[in-house]
Amino acid sequence: MASSRTLRPRRISAAVAVFLGLLSVLKTGSCDEQVPLLLWTSEGISAPTQSPPTAGHIVGQQQLASYLERALNVGPRNVVLFLQDKMSIEDFTMYGGAFGNKQDTVFPNLEAALMSSSSPLVLPAVSWPASNAVIGQLQDQLETSPLYMDPETLSQLRLNASSPALLVFRLPYGIGADLMSAKEVLSGNDEVIGQVLSIMKTQSVPYTAIYTALRPSREAASLSVEAGLGGGRSLLQARGGYRERQRERERQQRIKERAGIYAPVEFKEGENTCILLWAEGLSVSILRSGRWEDHDLTPSTFGEGVSPKLHGSSCDKSKAKLVLNYENVLGHRSFKLIFAMSQRHYKVSARRWFTLDAVELEYDGTKATFNGSRNIYAPAEYSYRCESVTSFRWPLLVPRSSKDPANQWRVSFEDFQIQGFNVSDSEFSYASDCAGFFSPGIWMGLMTSLLMVLVLTYGLHMIMQLRTMDRFDDPKGPAISVPQTE
Which residue among 120, 131, 330, 365 is least crowded, i.e. fewest CB within 10 A of its CB? Predict the structure, then answer.
C-alpha cells in the first residue's frame, strides 16, 4: 500500500515534466516544417515506455510508424485520433501557460490526460508529411477503416475492447489579426478532447489517444512568440536578433523553394510521353456535418521519390485521360482523381483546340463530375496554365448538375499546368495562360490615360477659341472709349 502511494506521485511528476518539456521546447531551426505529436493511453493502462528523440531531431515517416507500431502492439488497439488542421510547437508555448501562468493555459484537459497516463510520448518535431499520413499508418496497423466522429456520435457508439477501432476527430485551427481567435479555437478543441475522453471513460474501454495536426500552423504564430519574449534582451541577442533571424529565415525559404521544384506527373503510351501534369498544390474537400474536411494530395502526387499510380490512364490523337489513384483519402480506401481531355478542329479559328472536359472524383463506386470545357482550353499544340483552378472561388470547374455528388466536394489546384496532346521531349509546350490580356491594372491605366487625353483635348480646344483684339490703344493719340451701350 505504501509503495502504491509513492509510485503515483512519480508518475504524475514524470508526466508533468514531459508536458513542461514540450512547452519549453523552442526550435532554433525553421519551425514551419514540423508539427508536434502527443500519444498517451487511458488511465490505469500500462504501455511500453518509449524514449523520445533527441532535441532537434525531426521524426520522419518511417520512425513515426515504428513508434506507433510499438505502442499498438502492446497497448490498447482502440485508437482515438485528434487531428487538427494546423499546429506547431509555438501554439503550446503561446497558449499553454509555459511562462509561469498556468491559470492561463488553454490545454487543461490535455494536460490532465497526459498526467493520468502511465507512459505518455511527446514528439515535438514530426515532419508534416509524416503526420499527414498518420491515418494511413494507423489504418494499416489496425487493419480497419477510420470512423470520422464527433462527441455526440461517440456517445451513441458502443466500443469493444477486443475489436480494434480508429476514431478520428477533426479539430479546426483559426488565426486572426490579433491572434485571439487561435486561442479561442484551441480552447474549444481542448474542450472537445475533454468531452471525448470523458465519454471513453464512461464506456470503460481502454484506448490509445493521439493528438497531432496535418500541417504546421502559420508562421505568424512563431514570430509572435519571439516578439513576446521581448523582456529577455539577452535571449534575443544570443539568437542574433529578431531582424537577423527574419532575414535568415527568408533566405532559407528561398533556398528551399528553389530546391523544392519537382518534376511533373508524366504518362507514357509506349515510349512516348503523351500527358504532363504539374501543380504546386492539389487538394480536395468534402462536406460532412456542416464542415469542410480537407485533404492535400500534393505529397502523394509530386516530389522526389514519389511515383503516383496512373493505371487507367489513356491517350490518343483525339482523347486523353489521366487517372491519379490514391488510397485513404478522407475515409475512402480507394480514391481516383481523373482529368478527361479532348481535342478537335474548330472551323471559326481554323485550328485545333484541346479542352479539359471534366475533372472526376471516383470513390467507393461513386463518381463526382466537374465540367471544365467552358473555361479550360488552349490551342492543341500548347499547354494550359492557370494560377488557380477551383470549384468554389471564381470557379473554373462547376458540378455537372444540381444533383451530382460533386456538389458535396471542392477541388483546388494551385499553379496548375496540364498538357494532353502534342507533348515533345517530355516537356511542356508554350503555355496558354488563363489570365486575360486586359487585367484590372491594364484597364485602370487605359482609363486614366483616356481621361488625361480628354482633359488635354478640351484645354487645347479652349486655347484655340481665343480671339485677339482688333483695336489697340495708341499712347500718342486719343484714348479709346467704349460706349456702355455696345
Answer: 365
The full DSSP string for 247-274 is HHHHHHHHHHHHHT--PPEEEEETTEEE
What is the residue type of 49? T
DSSP conformational letter for 59: B
Distance between first and last Cα of the chain = 127
Q: What count of other Cβ atoms lies within 10 Å of the Cβ of residue 8?
A: 10
Q: Is the pLDDT of residue 2 over 60?
A: no
For cell 474549444, name the residue. 188
| Least confidently predicted of 128-142, 248-262, 311-325, 436-450 | 248-262
Strand order in the sheet with 78-86: 121-127, 34-41, 208-215, 78-86, 165-171, 146-148
Provide the pLDDT for residue 323: 94
Q: Give CA–CA dist 410/283, Å, rounded.
A: 8
Nearest one of 418, 420, 417 to 318, comparing CA atoms:
420
Residue 184: pLDDT band (50, 70, 90) is confident
Burial call 364-400: b when 16+ CB within 10 Å, e when fewer: eeeebbbbbeebbbbbbbbbbbbeebbbeeeebbbbb
Better pLDDT: 349 or 3: 349
Enumerate residues 6+ apart whose C-beta is below 8 A from 400: 358, 369, 370, 371, 406
* Pair 341, 383: CB distance under 8 Å: no
What angle do the packed helices 108-116 and 2-24 form, to 10 degrees?
A: 140
The enclosing H or E element of 364 equals none
Distance CA 90, CA 186 (A): 12
Rounded Cα distance, 208 and 78, in Å: 6
Beta bridge partners of 424: 427
Cα–Cα distance between 327 and 336 in angstroms, integer?
9
Gap between the Cα atoms of 305 and 322, Å rounded: 20
